[in-house]
Structures are given as structure tokens and as C-alpha cells.
Amino acid sequence: MKNNNKEQQGKGAASYLKLFSAQLDLLNLFSHALVFGIGLLIGVTLTFFVKNFSLINFPIQKFSFSSNSLMIKPPTSLSPSHPIISNISLLTSNNQTKNESQYLEGLVVSDSRLRHHDKTKPSSSDSSSINRKRVMNFNRVGLREFLKPPMAMHDMSDEELLWRASMVPMVHKLPFKQTTAKVAFMFLTKGPVLLAPLWERFFKGNERLYSIYVHSNPSFNETVPESSVFHGRNIPSQEVRWGENSMIEAERRLLANALLDFSNQRFVLVSESCIPLFNFSTIYTYLMNSTKTFVEAYDLPGEVGRGRYTPHMRPHIRLSQWRKGSQWFQIDRYLALQIISDHQYFPVFKKYCNPSCSCDEHYLPTFVSIKFWKRNSNRTLTWVDWSRGGPHPSRYFRTDVTIEFLNKLRYGSSCEYNGRTTNICHLFARKFTPHALDRLLRFAPKIMQFN
Ligand SMILES: *[C@@H]1O[C@H](CO)[C@@H](O)[C@H](O)[C@H]1NC(C)=O
Ligand SMILES: *[C@@H]1O[C@H](CO)[C@@H](O)[C@H](O)[C@H]1NC(C)=O
Ligand SMILES: *[C@@H]1O[C@H](CO)[C@@H](O)[C@H](O)[C@H]1NC(C)=O
Ligand SMILES: *[C@@H]1O[C@H](CO)[C@@H](O)[C@H](O)[C@H]1NC(C)=O
Ligand SMILES: *[C@@H]1O[C@H](CO)[C@@H](O)[C@H](O)[C@H]1NC(C)=O
Ligand SMILES: *[C@@H]1O[C@H](CO)[C@@H](O)[C@H](O)[C@H]1NC(C)=O
Ligand SMILES: CC(=O)N[C@H]1CO[C@H](CO)[C@@H](O)[C@@H]1O
């Protein structure tokens, strides 16, 4: 190359070419230095890791190439005592970087323990040094790691979260012992869970049968005591405007976070003013045994029902498909997955269901009624009283809470459950204010049989 340059130099444009040649030399030197640096870095990392593990199981694999296809063999034996850290040798065919491969190989086997291990396999230099070998370290996600409930807080964006949560195994036979199914309680709140002391009593003694997720306003920064079941259960949240699409987004966010835990099989959306009406075991069995999902859906003529539909939604949504219902649902894993991966109906709502349309009261009822009505009960398990009229349901204060009142909520209606008529139609109720907490705590153990 240098000779070539010199010839050209004679032909004129000397200074320019001199500079060019110098640059090439510099470039050459630089690339050598870079290659050496990378090799050194890998070598140092390897040495560091090896030092930390007494048991060395270094799976340098031989790789074969047929034309351009790259075959990666998994490590033959993975040490079960180090389930998290693993490594894979990657080989790529590249004749141009023969030097680079020499550097890398030299450093990879520079550790005596590694070299010893390498001797048990055909030496990599035997392989006519066609291949470049790259050794990569990464955190292994073994099945146990994969199944472990993730932390509620994470750094995924909504887009990343929804995509990840939407993954479903196509193989239905489990390669591990069935874990106990859990109910995910998803609290959609402005600030703190106001009736937390009551919920604490409710959950007590039922660990491993529930998980909790809290979506509160991002500006809410009160700390939850470590002893609380709500401690560390806040998910990455965004601002929510009641009645707007941000509300649906928050519900989808809660569902997606809860779906990341494979043991969550039922999903219950509750607000900060919701209370449980039965003890945990009753609610758990009711939800788990149900053959239907609980998304309230009904067709309501008039301004606050069909009046909120806009013909712009055609052809995706027709007026006859428009439904209304409470946003507080109790659903199963299948429906939860369908909701977070809906890319057909939610965009229509986002586009045409403006604030006065109250999408939180229409999106799920309409979506579920169009696509999943077969397995939906069309009712919600959350009791509420709209009888006093107005845009908000009745709120309950201290003196409203009596044993008679609570029993009316518990047994005061009639409905269908798994094909039979029952008088247990509501498992939760709203809207209770913190003023009602004292009396709720007093009555709950007695009538609701909290233990
Ligand atoms: C490779 O993985 C084994 C366990 O599979 C581990 O003991 C070893 O330290 C790892 N080596 C490196 C360089 O990470
Ligand atoms: C690499 O170079 C060798 C000769 O050194 C040649 O036989 C082989 O075909 C080349 N491989 C590729 C992928 O170019
Ligand atoms: C959040 O914390 C800061 C101080 O750490 C405080 O000044 C602020 O008022 C808090 N905000 C809320 C909403 O509690
Ligand atoms: C829960 O309440 C039911 C009655 O509603 C009762 O039969 C059951 O024993 C209670 N369970 C516990 C664990 O207290
Ligand atoms: C729920 O199902 C289990 C088993 O199928 C049964 O033993 C139990 O009695 C059922 N509970 C209710 C409340 O139906
Ligand atoms: C729920 O409503 C749909 C219509 O939207 C209806 O087809 C279905 O039969 C209803 N299911 C029940 C259990 O009432
Ligand atoms: C450092 C090193 O090994 N350099 C070699 C790179 O490859 C060329 C030709 O393939 C050799 O001439 C160098 O000695």
C-alpha cells in the first residue's frame, strides 16, 4: 500500500498524498490499538469473572460454517450453581480481520485456567484461522429468573411494556410445577390508597395468593411504610385525567404490569375509595371459579349512553355495538392480554372519543361486547349507587356505615354466577371516604370474617 502511494506521489500532488498516506498509517495504527483494546477489555473481564467463581465451566464452542450461515451451539453444560451468569462464544467468518481474531484468541486463552480448559477441545488456531471469535458475557435469564415476579418499578416505556406483556406461550404444557394462581389487585388512585388499613387486614395471611399494583399520579411522592403491603408496589405512572383516554392508558399500564407476573390469573381494578365486601378466601374463590369475566356492559339510549357515540367511528364501531358500563372490572388473563394488545378499537377511541365522551365508561364495555361477549357476564362485581343522580355516585361517610348497610351490599341483589342464581353479586363497593374507615375497621372482622 505504501509502495503504491509512493508511486502515485511521484506523479504529483505530493503533499496531498503524503498527508493521505500518513492518515492511512495512523488509521492502521489506530485500528490495531482499538482491536488490542477490545481484546484486553474482554480478557480483563473474563479474568475478573473467573476469579469470582470457583467452578469454571467455560463453554468455548466450536462453530462450523457452511457458506454464510452461522450456527450457534448452546453451551453443552450449564452449571446449575451459577444460574444467572453465562457466556457464549460467537464466531463469525471474516477473512479480512484475521489479525483481530488472533488478538482476541490470544487474550481469551491468556488465563491459565481457561487455557487448560481450552486444551480439552481442538485448539481454535487449528481451524485454519478463518474464524473470528468473540466471547460475550451477559446475564442469563433462566426459567426460574423468567418466572420470578418482576419488581413493580422498572424503566420500560409504555410501548416496551405493552409489547413485553403481550407475549403468550404457545406451548401449554408447563415445564415446571404449577404455581399457585394469584389475583392481581390493581389500584388506580390519585394519591395514597385511602382505605389502606382495611385492605391490609383483608390481605393479611393470604400472601402468595395476590399481587398488588398501584398507579397513582406521578407527582404523588409520599412514602409507604415498609411494613405495608403497598410498599414498593407503585408502577411507573403517568398523569390521568378522569374520563379521558389517559385513564384507559393507565388501566392498560396496570394490566400490562400485572401480566408480567405469570402467576397472576385474575385482574381486579379498584379505586382508592373501593372496599372489599367479603374476606379474601371468598373473593379469591369467587373470582377463580368464575367461568365468566366481569366487565359491565349495557346499551343505554339517551344522552349519556348512545348520545356519546359518534358516526366517525364507523365502520370500526357501529352504534348498535356501542356499550356503556362501569370501568371497575374483574377479568381473567386471556381478556387482560386482549385488552393490552388491542390495536383495532383503542386507536378509534383515542381519535374520536373526546373528553365529554367518557371513554372510561365506553371503551372496555364496547370492545369486550364486540369481541369477547361470549365469556363476559356484562356485570361488574363492584357495587356503586347512582340512584341519587348527578355525574358522581353516592359517597359514604362515617355514619353511613352500618352492619345493615354492609349486609345489603353483600347480599342485597340477585344475579347469575356459573349458570346459577346467587345473592352474592358484589365483592367490592365504592365510594367510601376515609371518614368511614374507623367503622369499617370495626365491623369488617365481624361481618366480613377477616382473620
Ligand atoms: C461462563 O459461565 C460459567 C457458568 O455457566 C461461569 O462459571 C463462568 O465464570 C463464565 N465465564 C465468564 C467469562 O463469564
Ligand atoms: C477465507 O480465506 C481462505 C483462504 O485463506 C479461503 O479459502 C476462504 O474461502 C475464505 N473464506 C471466506 C468466507 O471468504
Ligand atoms: C414531593 O417531595 C418534595 C420534597 O421531597 C416536596 O417538597 C413536595 O411537596 C412533594 N410533593 C408531593 C406532591 O407530595
Ligand atoms: C370467609 O368468610 C366465609 C363466609 O363469608 C367463611 O365461611 C370463611 O370461613 C371465611 N374464611 C376465613 C379464612 O376466615
Ligand atoms: C370452586 O371450585 C373448586 C374446585 O373446582 C370447588 O371445590 C369449590 O367448591 C368451588 N367453590 C365455589 C365457591 O364454587
Ligand atoms: C352480554 O351482552 C351481549 C350483547 O352485548 C349478549 O350477546 C350476551 O348474551 C350478554 N351476556 C350475558 C351473560 O348476559
Ligand atoms: C499483528 C499481526 O498479526 N499482524 C498481521 C496481520 O495480518 C497480516 C497479513 O495477513 C500480517 O502480515 C501481519 O503480520
From TrEMBL:
Membrane topology, as annotated: Single-pass type II membrane protein
Glycosyltransferase in keyword set: yes
UniProt entry tagged with the keyword Glycosyltransferase: yes
Keyword terms, alphabetized: Glycoprotein, Glycosyltransferase, Membrane, Transferase, Transmembrane, Transmembrane helix
Transmembrane residue ranges: 29-50
Subcellular location: Membrane
Pfam families for the chain: Branch
UniProt-listed InterPro entries: BC10-like, Glyco_trans_14
GO molecular function: glycosyltransferase activity
One Gene Ontology cellular component: membrane
PANTHER family found in the cross-reference section: CORE-2/I-BRANCHING BETA-1,6-N-ACETYLGLUCOSAMINYLTRANSFERASE FAMILY PROTEIN-RELATED (PTHR31042), CORE-2_I-BRANCHING BETA-1,6-N-ACETYLGLUCOSAMINYLTRANSFERASE FAMILY PROTEIN (PTHR31042:SF131)
UniProt protein name: Glycosyltransferase BC10
Protein species of origin: Glycine soja
